[in-house]
Write a structure and sequence with these properties.
single chain, mainly alpha, Arc Repressor Mutant, subunit A, three-stranded antiparallel sheet, 6 helices, about 60% helix, elongated
C-alpha cells in the first residue's frame, strides 16, 4: 500500500527536497563569509574539537558528507588563513589541523547565523512536534 496518494511526493522525495533546500541555504550563509559550504563543514568539525587539533583523517570521518577531498579543502582553508597545520613530530605522515584565530572567529559567526536560521525553521513546530520529528528522524537513520 503506498504511503502517499498518487501524484503527491513520497517521504523520501520530501526529505531529499528539504536536504537540498537546507544545503543551499547553508551554502548561501557560508558564502556571505567568503567560504564554501564544504569549507564550512570542515571548519564546523574543527570548532567542535576546539582547542584540540584534529588529523586530516579525523576531519574526514567527522564530516556529514563523506568527501574524499579533505586535503584540497584544507589547502584552500590554509591559503585563506583560516586553519593552521603542523606536522606531527612522532609521525611525519600525520598532520594536525586547528583553527587559526581568524578561522575560529569566522566559524563562530557562520555557526551563529546557521543556528538562527535553524531556530527560525524549528520555531514553526511545537516543542512536542520538535521532539517527535527528532525521534522519527533518528529512527529512520541508516
Amino acid at each position: 500500500m503506498p504511503l502517499t496518494s498518487p501524484g503527491s511526493p513520497s517521504i523520501l522525495s520530501r526529505l531529499t527536497l528539504l536536504n537540498s533546500e537546507l544545503t543551499v541555504a547553508v551554502g548561501e550563509i557560508a558564502a556571505e563569509h567568503q567560504i564554501s559550504a564544504a569549507q564550512f563543514a570542515v571548519l564546523r568539525v574543527l570548532i567542535e574539537s576546539w582547542p584540540d587539533p584534529l588529523t586530516c583523517s579525523d576531519i574526514g570521518c567527522n564530516l556529514l558528507d563523506r568527501t574524499p577531498d579533505v586535503t584540497r579543502l584544507l589547502d584552500r582553508l590554509d591559503k585563506a588563513g583560516l586553519i593552521d597545520r603542523k606536522r606531527c613530530t612522532e609521525d611525519r605522515r600525520v598532520t594536525h589541523v586547528h583553527l587559526s584565530t581568524e578561522g575560529k572567529s569566522r566559524t563562530i559567526a557562520v555557526v551563529e547565523q546557521v543556528n538562527r536560521f535553524e531556530r527560525h525553521l524549528i520555531d514553526r513546530l511545537s516543542t512536542e512536534e520538535q521532539r517527535l520529528l527528532t525521534h522519527l528522524l533518528d529512527r529512520i537513520r541508516l
